Amino acid sequence: MSILDLCYEPHPVxxxxxRPVTQITGETHALVRNMIETMYAHDGIGLAAPQxxxxxxxxxxxxxxxxxxxxxxxxxxxEPIHGQASIREGCLSLPNVWDHVRRxxxxxxxxxxxxxxxxxxxxxxLLAIVFQHEVDHLEGRLFIDHLSWFKRRxxxxxxxxxxxxxxxxxxRPTPD
Length: 176
Ligand code: ZN
Hints:
By secondary structure, the protein is an alpha+beta fold. It has helices at 26-41, 125-138, 149-164; strands spanning 46-48, 58-61, 71-91, 94-112, 118-123. The protein is globular, with a radius of gyration of 16 Å.
């Protein structure tokens, strides 16, 4: 298992529509194992394949950060059920940027698990938010794309500034 390099904004893979997974191979399993390692190494609660430079429709989620309890979803489709929720979101591809995003409170997620079996989950709370954040990644959207023009600009300016700070080590973001 290895920790993969993260892709940071403005990497083009973060803005592209990811491709469906048509065959689940040993490589798919290895990718998912490495994504899990990478997510925990960076203290994340979710990770989408484009964030490690792979344009496939795969994401993992572990809101409780419990090893062995990760949810792995391939080819997800998301349907809002009801309600609105908002938390201060962050993203491993946007180091040290946080803001509130309006999401659906309850969602239904359909897709496949790593064995290729169909899954259908109706969830709320933090997991519903993680699902929406990760499915956005697979559609080439970042959480800052939901913000107002001003807030998005401010977030991008902060990212840009970090990259030019002499002590900034872009490869090791530390969530605050
Ligand atoms: Zn993210």
